[in-house]
Every structure is written in structure tokens, then in C-alpha cells.
Amino acid sequence: RQYDSVATLQRAVGSQLIERLGPGADSPVTVLDLGCGTASFQPDLLRLYPHARYLGLDLAPGMIAYARGRFGDDSLWLVGDAEALPLATGSVDLVFSSLAFQWCYQPEKLFAELARVLAPGGCCLFTSLGPDTLRELRTAWAAVDAHQHVNHFLPVTELEAAARSVPGMHLSLDRAYHRMEYGRVGELLTVLKTLGAHNMNRDRPAGLTSRRGLQGMLAAYEAQREDGLLPATYEVIFGEVNII
Question: How far apart, in whole angstroms, are the C-alpha atoms of residue 59 and residue 82?
Fold first, then answer.
């Protein structure tokens, strides 16, 4: 319920992805919002495609329950995994997915599923996060220990290789950098916690971080302060998948 209150980056990136759909695009019959979260972009998608059937899908049951309560049963809602979609073959015309693919660590399965559920001529527009995301936080933790405290996301080379393994799939990618700024490191950590962006790496530290370790990280992050603010960089990958 608190997700949208801190989802500043998510709104900005999703809005840029909506703009890439553009006016006058062919009207799809079924639009899949993959990793829909709180379904913030449902109104935009239905505004662009008023006659389309909207399907919101997310891995988290709580997100789907919240989205259904927000927008009702006029739209369709599913709990599901992007790497094993509970959808029929060729049942979707357009997949819209903003800042969800970075949680998929088996891109071959992800792209194979996209190719399966998309109808001939269908496409997917998505955003993801690249490995340069939160580089300042990663640098600060590296000054403390050798554990991986920050999520590692797949580079474009791995996404491109996965797409090449799927017959008939064409993938185009570009990147942009978003810089968020905070007065204190604690503000950034609170945002990440509220978003549910937990550390998913296998070599993450076990147990709670010591007070000494945390203080060391905070001091190292402070060394990166610029013009009175602490930067947090996000590498945002924009992608388009077309099925030939």
C-alpha cells in the first residue's frame, strides 16, 4: 500500500515507456501489463487502447489484490511468473512491462515465453535495470566488506544473447541513466525497502549487518556527496521485442 508513495523512478520510467507506444499505433485486442505491480499504468494503456482487454499480471499476490481493489474486475488480473506465463499460446497482442524484467535471471525462459504468448506480429515494450544501477551504494558497501549487498542485474549483452536463441524474435535495446538525489543515505534505503527491492544475490551477507559495518557504509557513501546531495544512479534499459 505504500509502494506508490516512493515509486518516483518507476513512474518516470513507465511514463517514458508509455510515450514510446505513440499515438495512432495499431490497436491490440489484448494488452498484458507484465509485472504490473499496483497497475499504475492501467489507465494510460486503456486510454491509448480503449477497446483492448487489459490483463494485469504480477508475481506478488498482494500487488494483484491491491490492483484489483483499485481498478475493479472490469480488467483481468493474474498472479503469475514471467518465466512461466499462465497464458495460452498466441493470446496477447501487446506486452507492456516496466521495471520488472530485472528480477528475471533466466532471460532465455523469459523471451521464450514472450515469443509463445505473443500473437503473430505482436510486440513487447519493456524497461529493465542494468548492472550499473545503484553504483554509488555498491561502492560504499565495497569499502566495508566483500559481500554483495546490492542486487546485480543482467547486462544488455545477456539479454541480446537470450533473444538470439529464440527463433523469429527481434530485440532492439537502448539505455538511459536516471539520477536520483537524497539528503541522507537512510532515505534511499527506506525507498528500497518500501519498494520491496530486496537483495536477491546468492553471495549476499547472512544475518544482520553489524552496526560497525553499517556506519562504515554510511561514511563511504557520504564521501560521494555532490552539491549537498547524495546521488543514486539507475541504468535503465529500454527494449522492444518483435515477433517476425
Answer: 8
